[in-house]
Amino acid sequence: MKKIKQPPGLWTKAILCSLLVTGCGYQQYQPHPLATKQGEVSLRAHDTGDAGFLAYMREEGYADLPDTWGWRELMLCALYFHPSLDVARAQLGQALATITTASQRPNPSISAGAGRRNEPDVPEVYSLSFSIPIETAGKRQARIDLATNMSESARLHIAQTAWNLRYQLLSSWIELNAAQQQLLALEQESTLREEIVAMLSLRLQAGMISSVELSNARLQSQQLKQTLVETQGRVSELETQLASNSGLSLEKFRQLRLQWHTTEQLLNATHSVDIGNSLNPAAQDAALLNRVDIRASLANYAASEAKLRLEIARQYPDINLLPSYNYEEGFHIWSLGINSLLNVMHRNQGPVAEATALRETEAARFEALQASVIAAMDSSKSRYRTSLEALAQAQQAYETQQSQTAQAQTRFEHGFADRLELVTFQLENVIARQRLLIAEYQVQRNAAALEDSMQLPLENLAPMPDPLSNPPRQPAHSQETTS
CA of 311: how far to CAs of 120, 226, 300, 342, in Å? Predict the structure, then answer.
């Protein structure tokens, strides 16, 4: 009796439908070439008048752009414009994408076949089989934990980048302000030294002094002029550095009206930080818990733990379920198979050993980081205390010199001192004030370093002027400043 061919049309349709479904929903590649000048154009496009930046400033409590810009306002510029934060945010996006990858389950596979024998009375042969992978031992959750901890480390990297920007901006702000104040003091000193040279020249013509005394005065005046030129160049360099740390081009930065210290604010500033209360062991413990790099190191250690757990789980092979259907010679054949690896050659010992060593390495890095942070805090604390003592001595020396200069002024007015003696005392007074300003700025530098070592704002930065409460003061490039 002749067999009737009954091709499984239903299964053929099912295969076609499955192929159509898997062909839908794919993303398309979109090229995005990077031009060489794109970075330069992007930096020059950073503008404080940008609508997005205005909205950001309103979110930070500013009704409009400030009339004068202090370092806190420039910090908002850096948080909005600086490209290093864009890199950190992009890295966070990349890390978050790994969570999606880690949480994906393995796709099943399908295979189909069709054929016929070289005999007219034998029907066609059809086959359809699936492979359904099943992960064992919690591998998927271990991958998710690994990716999650790595994304937490990337998130903390953004905070660390922002803090580094804050410290760099504050340091460059302090350095530029110090250089400008030094420039003003050097200009005053140069004027007084020129007066002294002029008076000594007259005395040399009158035979009252030797040429050696005049030569020494001229040499000191020339050396001071050279220092003055170098300081002017340093001001320009620091200005460029501050603009870069603010995320702005130098052209845009110079359009801002900046708020600076005045000499009187510096000389009247007091630093009231209680080192005993601020840097006691409890405060150090709080700093250790607060520091972003400490928390990032803990996240890296947790990731190494998840990595080890994943490698241990990979000792256990996954299972593949293999259901299949065959149609042959008019018969419908169903079958179910199981496929798995045999851990005969190895049991993943190598990756497990690597993950174990990685965990030990992360633990050692954490201990080393803690020790480094504690040492940095102790060193910063010592330097800050020393600078406070030096500031007190400089303040006392300046007050003494002011008293002596006032006495010389009185003697000059009553005819008991000549003008050369008065100008000499005035010169010594200017030099004493220079030393006081240097000591004041050294306190601010060490205060910023102490703040950076703890990654906690300190009250000793309070003398930094508030741009909304102090009269505006332009930098040297846009306004002549006088003492």
Answer: 56, 66, 16, 17
**Once rounded to an integer, what is the mean pLDDT over residues 13-26?**
57
Query: Position 382: which residue type?
Result: S
Residue 299 · residue 149 · CB < 8 Å = yes
**Homologous superfamily (CATH) for 70-105+145-316+364-461:** Outer membrane efflux proteins (OEP) (1.20.1600.10)
**Which residue in 10, 1, 8, 4 sits closest to 122, CA to CA?**
4
Token pair for 325: 């259907």
Show the CA angle centred on residue 383, arms to residues 380 and 388, nearest 5°: 125
Give the chain's largest Cα–Cα span: 147
- What is the distance, to the nearest Å, from the Cα of residue 408 to the centroid of all Cα atoms in its chain? 53
Q: What is the rounded CA–CA span in Å between residue 381 and residue 281? A: 12
Residues of the chain above pLDDT 90, percent: 48
What is the spatial distance between Cα 11 and Cα 13, in angstroms, rounded to a whole number?
5
- Helices and strands, counts by H and E, the chain: 14, 4
pLDDT tens for each residue of 308-351:
999 999 999 999 999 998 887 778 889 888 988 888 888 889 99
